[in-house]
Amino acid sequence: MHFDLKSVIRDIPDFPKKGIVFKDITTLLKHPQALNIALQGMAAPFVHSGVNHVVGIESRGFMFGVSAAQTLKCGFVPIRKAGKLPSETYRVDYELEYGTSQLAIHKDAIEPGENVVIMDDLLATGGTMDAAIQLVTQCGGDVVGISCLIELTFLNGRGKLGNIPFHTLIQY
C-alpha cells in the first residue's frame, strides 16, 4: 500500500524568517502510519551495510536517528549545537539556509574506522550535513551513508555531500 508522506507535511510561510517556507514535520510525527513509514524508510537502505553508529543531528535528527539505530542494531551518537555536550568536543562552524551556527560531537563518540550513517529531517543547502560529515571525519569515522526525510532539491544541498550515498523519502 502506498502512502503519500507529503500529504501530512504542513508548509509554514515566512518561518523562521520572511521568504522561508518551513516544512513542518510535526504533522507527520503525530500520524502513526506516516511516522512508521518514515522511520522504516529512512533506515531500510542501511540494514545490511555494517553500520556501527547512527549519528543524528540536533534536534529532529535525534528522533529518526535513535529509531534507525534500533532497526540497524547499532549505537546512536548525537551531534549537538556547540556548548550542549558535557565532555571534550570537536566543533565546526557552518552556514544554514537562514543564518550561521556551530555543531559539536564528543571526541570519543566514534572510533577510527567505524562506519556511520548520518540522519536528519531535512537537507536544504547542505551546510548542516557538511558540518556533520566533518565532525564524524574528525573522530576518524567513515560516513557510509546519509538519510534525510526531506530534500529541498532546488537548494542543491547534495552538492556538498561528495560521493557519499544519499537517501531521502520526500523531495521538493
Description:
The chain is α/β, with parallel strands linked by helices and 172 residues long. Helices cover 24% and strands 35% of the residues. It has four helices and nine strands. The strands form two sheets. The chain has a seven-stranded mixed beta sheet, sandwiched between helices. A two-stranded antiparallel sheet has the order 1-2. The protein is globular. The two termini are 22 Å apart. The model has no long low-confidence stretch (mean pLDDT 95).
Silhouette: globular
Helix and strand element order? EEHHEHEEEEHEE
The structural class is alpha/beta
Biggest beta sheet summary: 7 strands, mixed
Calculate the terminal CA-CA distance, rounded to whole Å. Answer: 22 Å
Q: What is the helix fraction of residues, given as a range?
A: 10-25%
**Radius of gyration (Å):** 15 Å
Major β-sheet strand ordering: 5-6-4-3-7-8-9
What is the chains' assembly state? single chain
Secondary structure topology:
Layout: E1 10-13, E2 21-24, H1 26-29, H2 32-43, E3 53-57, H3 60-72, E4 75-81, E5 89-96, E6 99-106, E7 115-123, H4 127-139, E8 142-151, E9 166-171
Parallel strand pairs: 3-4, 3-7, 7-8, 8-9
Antiparallel strand pairs: 1-2, 4-6, 5-6
